[in-house]
Write a structure and sequence with these properties.
The complex is a heterotrimer of chains A (190), B (366) and C (252).
Chain A: E1 4-12, H1 17-30, E2 34-39, E3 49-57, E4 71-74, H2 77-82, E5 92-96, E6 112-116, H3 118-125, H4 131-143, H5 148-165, H6 167-187
Parallel strand pairs in A: 1-4, 4-5, 5-6
Antiparallel strand pairs in A: 1-3, 2-3
Chain B: E1 9-15, H1 16-26, E2 31-34, H2 41-50, E3 57-60, H3 64-76, E4 81-85, H4 87-103, E5 108-113, H5 129-134, E6 143-146, H6 150-167, E7 171-176, H7 177-181, E8 183-189, E9 219-220, H8 227-248, E10 251-254, E11 259-264, H9 267-282, E12 287-292, E13 294-296, H10 300-308, E14 310-317, H11 322-330, E15 338-342, H12 350-361
Helix pairs in contact in B: 1-2, 1-6, 3-4, 9-12
Chain C: H1 29-43, E1 49-53, E2 68-71, H2 77-87, E3 92-98, H3 99-105, H4 107-116, E4 121-126, E5 129-130, E6 136-137, H5 156-159, H6 165-172, E7 178-183, H7 187-202, E8 208-213, H8 217-220, H9 224-238, E9 242-245
Parallel strand pairs in C: 1-2, 1-3, 3-4, 4-8, 7-8
Antiparallel strand pairs in C: 5-6, 7-9
Helix pairs in contact in C: 1-7, 3-4
The chains are: A alpha/beta (190), B alpha/beta (366), C alpha/beta (252).
The structure holds thiamine diphosphate (TPP), iron/sulfur cluster and magnesium ion.
Chain lengths: 190, 366, 252
């Protein structure tokens, strides 16, 4: 309904899904889009699967949460199981190729299921610190919801203070974005 | 210190709780009293971060009874005092708010509904409608604004202070955990820059002069000796409530002329309802919506009018019939079928509403 | 010197329109409020006092004084006074309550106001019963004492021990707090305690709390003599009179 891109990102605490959501929504804001972002929250302060529900569109967004996402990303085994309910025939499901023991839990009804070697790429080719930004690149690659320019601008805005001390980190982050886009594109998103 | 928290206006991207704290600041609130409860906590957290820069005070109380009663104390001194709570805290809040109702004390309370009964969930619901509108051992002489966006949260938090002080009925901003925690864009502004005058406040106690000499002492009470004495006070309050209700009532309606289906929803669910209705209307269906913004006082005449031209109604809410009860009560005597989509404690998507509406429009569902 | 004043003079801060007051004959509430009225006069603070009364027989004082007064809910006078004081520290707030209001239903407020060292004064009337509701057991009912809900006498194994309020408050209160237990049977001393408590608030030093041993002949079902004997001789055995906490630590 409407032109809204619905994104669900799920992972373990510390994998940075909420900060990905924050940078992504920042980029969308820079594009002048309407955004609605809600983290899941429950009674426990730590330990649960962390999910970010992000919607980006041209008009005011309706409901804060959605049943099925356009792109659903899971970064851990528990996350794969947790987000099953948000997958439908229109969903592109992306998970990290290094997650083990989830074969049974992979959605059968998704439009596409992509295992991307995000963790491996981050660790081997870039830096473990930019894993989440690489994931953000994957989201952008799959949805084109924001331009790469605005994504970089948003990174600069959110993390600029870190780059001042460590200018190399800026390049790493920008590369991670590009790499993430590339990883998804290579898989051939419809 | 002392400068305006917001100059002019600016567009920001923030959580609902943050928007409430900014609105209270913009409205010139002086002091907040509160007790931690999810999903309201960040209102206090933002208030305590922003407050000291503008000479604002805060007291973390021992429970919500105390939060409500200290808020009453603050209001009695003529300060714009407020509190915020949710769920089981809202249950406790009813005791002080019933005193405020009895004594016409202009309290402002922000409610971020969470799942119930009991501890339920800390996340979301629309299950505190009955409690907020009619909680306490009284007649529900309160004003309840149901918000559906961050803009509403900002606008109606400011408005709540004015409504409370103008009419002297306890005023609630009824929101929910989704609105509290989600981030979306909102334009925050200095009310004055928008031509909004804040209603001046005045002390109930501690006015100038010696009581009994320069002025009568304030003897404020909520206890009466005989039934008739209470009835006299209540009758006056009820008469006044009903008289000012038309000035307070707010609603939103769309496509209400000759509709096959009129969808009724409030709060965050209204967003989904509006999307579903507009989508179906654009496909040529005769479908409209009605959104009560004030749940107390309720836009009775407006709803009856909209209803008279509809073939059937669909009430949608994240509760098992709390808005429904109010709707039925206000439509008493009209012969119109009322269908429901009731999902206590969970969100409702536009797709779910559209699906239900389509089935009803096609006559597939009785 | 001639003493012309045979009739006791009414404190200036009393509201003559509400006199004679509504308490039963022989009730201690009137004496506590008389002491308070004299203190308000002596300190010349009638224009700054906000008096809050609880539900219980203390509610009968809602128009007792010519001072701004708020009658609140059972147990909730302390938070209302805290709220007022926090919003306007120039006012002198006095919370007036019974033992049920202060030690049972509102005990969390008393404990937390004391612990926060809120600059208010709380005066609690200990009459060992829930008087207004007809004489049920109160937190302060003495061991063996008969009430409507302990018809065979308070059995401490079943119903627990009487609450020792000032002892508890003094134990948790902080420097600057003033805590005392007086009795209507020692009027001058009670008045001194009340005065010191309010002066303590005026000096901004901290929380001040007075428990006043009092009478309830109506629910005790005692004649004048027995009533007085109970408050003067029996109650202090369990509830010792004196100062429990004084700023600087010079308890009398
Ligand atoms: C919430 C609530 N529970 C119960 C009551 C009923 N009630 C009124 S007065 C009272 C007891 C009063 O006893 P105390 O506080 O000792 O005051 P006293 O009358 O002895 O001076 C009770 C239980 C009430 N008013 N409100
Ligand atoms: S019932 Fe007891 S406490 Fe109440 S007014 Fe009478 S004597 Fe006093
Ligand atoms: Mg008592």
């Amino acid at each position: 309904m409407g032109q809204v891109v619905k994104i669900a990102l799920a992972g373990e605490g510390g994998q940075g899904v909420q900060s990905v959501a924050q940078i992504l929504t920042e980029a969308a804001a820079l594009e002048g889009k309407e955004i609605l972002y809600i983290p899941n929250f429950g009674v426990e302060q730590r330990g649960g699967v962390s999910i970010a529900f992000v919607q980006i569109g041209d008009e005011k967004i309706g409901a804060p949460k959605f049943k099925t996402g356009d792109i659903v990303i899971a970064l851990s085994d528990r996350a794969v199981r947790r987000v099953k309910m948000h997958i439908g025939p229109e969903t592109i499901f992306v998970y990290d190729a290094s997650i083990e023991g989830v074969e049974e839990d992979l959605p059968a009804n998704a439009k596409q299921v992509l295992a991307i070697p995000a963790l491996e790429t981050a660790n081997k080719e870039l830096d473990p610190r930019v894993f989440n930004v690489l994931i953000m690149g994957a989201v952008i690659g799959a949805t084109r919801v924001v331009t790469i320019e605005k994504a970089k601008e948003a990174i600069e805005k959110k993390l600029g203070y870190k780059f001042e001390k460590d200018p190399e980190l800026r390049e790493l982050n920008f590369k991670a974005i590009e790499k993430g886009i590339e990883l998804v594109e290579r898989m051939g998103v419809a | 210190m002392g400068s305006k928290p917001i100059e002019g206006e600016r567009k920001v991207f923030m959580t609902g709780n943050e928007a409430v704290a900014w609105a209270a600041l913009a409205a010139g609130a002086d002091i907040m009293y509160g007790y931690p409860i999810t999903p309201q906590n960040e209102i206090m957290q933002y208030w305590t971060r922003l407050g000291p820069k503008y000479d604002k005070k805060f007291l973390q109380t021992e429970d919500e009874l105390s939060a409500g009663f200290t808020t009453i104390g603050g209001v009695l001194t003529g300060k714009r005092a407020f509190t915020a709570t949710a769920g089981p805290g809202n249950v406790l809040m009813q005791e002080p708010m019933s005193m405020a109702e009895a004594m016409r004390i202009p309290t402002v309370v922000v409610i971020q509904q969470r799942g119930g009964p009991s501890t339920g969930t800390v996340i979301y619901s629309q299950q505190e409608v009955t409690l907020t509108c009619f909680g306490g051992n009284g007649e529900g002489l309160r004003v309840v604004y149901s918000t559906s966006s961050h803009q509403d949260l900002f606008d109606y938090t400011i408005k709540a202070f004015n409504t409370a002080w103008k009419y002297r009925f306890p005023t609630f901003v009824l929101s929910d955990g989704y609105q509290a925690k989600m981030r979306e864009s909102v334009v925050i502004y200095d009310p004055e820059a928008r031509g909004i005058q804040m209603v001046p406040t005045e002390p109930y106690v501690g006015k100038a002069g010696t009581p009994g000499k320069d002025r009568p002492a304030a003897h404020l009470r909520n206890t009466y000796n005989i039934e008739e004495e209470l009835l006299e006070v209540l009758s006056k309050d009820i008469e006044e409530y009903e008289r000012v209700a038309p000035e307070i009532i707010e609603y939103d309606a769309y496509n209400t002329e000759n509709t096959d289906l009129l969808v009724i929803a409030h709060g965050v669910v209204f967003r989904s309802a509006a999307m579903a209705v507009k989508e179906l209307a654009s496909q040529g269906n005769k479908i409209g919506y009605f959104r009560p913004i004030t749940l107390r006082p309720f836009p009775k005449e407006q709803l009856r009018q909209a209803t008279q031209q509809a073939k059937q109604l669909l009430v949608v809410e994240s509760a098992y019939g709390q808005l429904l009860k109010i709707v039925k009560d206000n439509l008493y005597g009209l012969n119109i079928p009322i269908k429901t989509l009731l999902r206590p404690g969970v969100g409702i998507t536009p797709e779910e509403i559209a699906e239900k509406a389509k089935a009803l429009l096609a006559g597939k569902e009785a | 010197m001639e003493t012309k004043e045979i009739l006791p003079k009414m404190p200036k801060s009393w509201n003559p329109a509400s006199k004679p007051h509504k308490f039963c004959p022989g009730c201690g509430h009137g004496l506590v409020l008389k002491a308070l009225g004299q203190v308000i006069d002596e300190l010349n603070i009638q224009d700054r006092v906000v008096f809050g009364c609880d539900i219980g027989c203390s509610l009968l004082s809602w128009d007792f004084f010519n001072v701004d007064t708020v009658q609140t809910h059972h147990g909730r006078t302390t938070p209302v006074m805290v709220g007022i004081k926090r919003a306007n520290p120039d006012l002198i707030t006095i919370a007036y309550m019974g033992d049920g209001g202060g030690y049972a239903i509102g005990s969390q407020h008393l404990v937390n106001a004391a612990n926060r060292n809120d600059i208010i004064t709380a005066i609690l009337v200990n009459n060992t019963v829930y008087a207004m509701t007809g004489g049920q057991m109160a937190p302060t009912t003495m061991p063996g004492q008969k009430t409507e809900t302990t018809p065979y006498g308070r059995d401490i194994k079943e119903a627990g021990y009487p609450m020792l309020g000032p002892e508890m408050v003094a134990a948790i209160a902080h420097e600057g707090a003033y805590v005392a237990r007086g009795s209507i049977a020692k009027f001058r001393q009670l008045k001194t305690f009340i005065k010191k408590a309010i002066e303590n608030q005026m000096a901004g030093r901290g929380f001040s709390f007075i428990e006043a041993l009092s009478t309830c002949p109506t629910n005790w079902r005692t004649n004048a003599e027995k009533t007085w004997d109970f408050v003067e001789n029996i109650m202090p055995k369990y509830f010792p009179i004196g100062e429990y906490k004084v700023p600087g630590g010079k308890e009398e």
